[in-house]
Specification:
homotrimer, about 45% helix, about 15% strand, globular
Chain lengths: ~150, ~150, ~150
C-alpha cells in the first residue's frame, strides 16, 4: 500500500473543502430562479381593482406570463372585487385565463355573510387573506399593494 | 503508531465534508420556524385602524397567538390611532393584552407636538416608524399595509 | 519524507471543515450589511407624495444618507408626482441631490401619453414600475407603501 505524502493529503482535503462550497453556490443560484408576486386588494374601490389587474398584466407582459407566478388576494373591504356583480368581472375572467391566481378571503366572506354562489366563477379561496399574504412573502413572493 | 491508509483517509475527509453540509441544513430549517408580521398604519382613517386590528386578530386566530409575532406600527397621519382619544382605544387595549406589540413613531409625535402623556397607555415607541418597518422586514417579518 | 500521524491528519481535516464553515459566516454577515428600501407612490394624492419624501428623509436622518439605498418608484395614478408641474418639484430636486433615486414608470407614461420632456429633470426611468418594485424586493430591499 502506498504511503500518503503531505502533498496528496493536501489535495484530498482540498476536495473536501470544495465540496463544502458547492451547496452555497446552489443556494445562491436558487434565489432568482422564479419571479413571484402577490397583490393585495383590500379597498372597496373599483379603480384599485383595475389597477391591480393592470399591474398583473404589465408584469406578465414584461417578464413573460410563463415566467412569473402572480396571485391576487382580495379581502376585507376589497372582497367586492370578486363578487358576482363585480364591475371587474370580465377582466378577472381574462386574468384567470391568462394564468393569474385570484383568491377570496373566507374570513371576510363569513363576516359579510357571502357564500360561494355569491362569488365569481373560477376564483380560488383561502381561509384568511392576511395569512395568505404572509405565507406568500415567506415563500419569496414580492408584495405589492396597489 | 498505525500507518494511515487511503481508505481511512477518505472516510475522514468525508466526515469533514459532511460537517460542512450541516450548517446549510440548519439554515434551511431556520427560515419557516417563526411566523412574523408587521402592519403599517399610516392613514388618518379609523376604518383602516379597525382593519389593521381585525387583520391582527385573524392572524392570531388562524396561526395561534403563541405562534406568531405581530407588530403594528403607527406613523405619519396614522398616529391618531394611538392618541388618548382614539376611537379604537378599547380594541387596542385588548390587542395589547392578547400579545400584539403596538408602537408609535416618535418622529411623528415630535412633528405633531405630541408627548407621551397624550398617547394611549401600554403602547411602545420607536424613534422612526419607517425605519422600524424596514428593520422588521430585514428580520424576516412579512409586511402588510391594510 | 515525514510520516503522517493520526494527530496531524485530524488537524488537517479540521482545517478543511473550518474552511467549509467560512462561507456560511460570510453569508450570515452579508445580510444586514446594507440598508435598502423602496417606496411605492401609486396614488394621485400630493399628500402621499410628501409623505413618501418625508419618509425617505427620516430614513436618511436616522441611518445616515451614506448608509442606506433609497428608491422611490412612481407609477399609475402616482405618476403626477414626477411631472414637470408637480407641486413636490422642489422637494424632489432636494431628495435627488441628497442621494435618493427617484424613477418614473414608462408603461404609465405611454398610457398617459407623457414624454420625457413632460417630466421633472434628473429623475430616472424604469420600463415597468411594478416590475421594479418586485426586483428591488428580490434584491433585499424593504418595501414601504406610504
Amino acid at each position: 500500500m502506498p504511503r500518503i505524502t503531505r502533498r496528496s493529503l493536501v489535495s484530498m482535503t482540498t476536495v473536501a473543502a470544495l465540496a463544502a462550497f458547492a451547496p452555497m453556490a446552489a443556494f445562491a443560484q436558487a434565489r432568482p430562479a422564479r419571479n413571484k408576486v402577490v397583490f393585495q386588494v383590500s379597498d372597496a374601490d373599483p379603480q384599485k381593482w383595475n389597477l391591480a389587474l393592470n399591474n398583473a398584466k404589465n408584469v406578465q407582459d414584461d417578464l413573460g406570463s410563463e415566467d412569473v407566478d402572480i396571485e391576487i388576494v382580495a379581502y376585507g373591504p376589497g372582497i367586492g372585487m370578486l363578487k358576482g356583480d363585480s364591475p371587474a368581472a370580465a377582466r378577472i375572467a381574462a386574468a384567470l385565463k391568462g394564468g393569474v391566481r385570484i383568491v377570496a378571503c373566507e374570513n371576510t366572506m363569513k363576516a359579510q355573510k357571502l357564500v360561494y354562489a355569491d362569488m365569481l366563477p373560477a376564483i380560488g379561496y383561502v381561509p384568511a387573506g392576511v395569512v395568505e399574504l404572509m405565507k406568500k412573502q415567506q415563500d419569496g413572493y414580492a408584495y405589492i399593494r396597489p
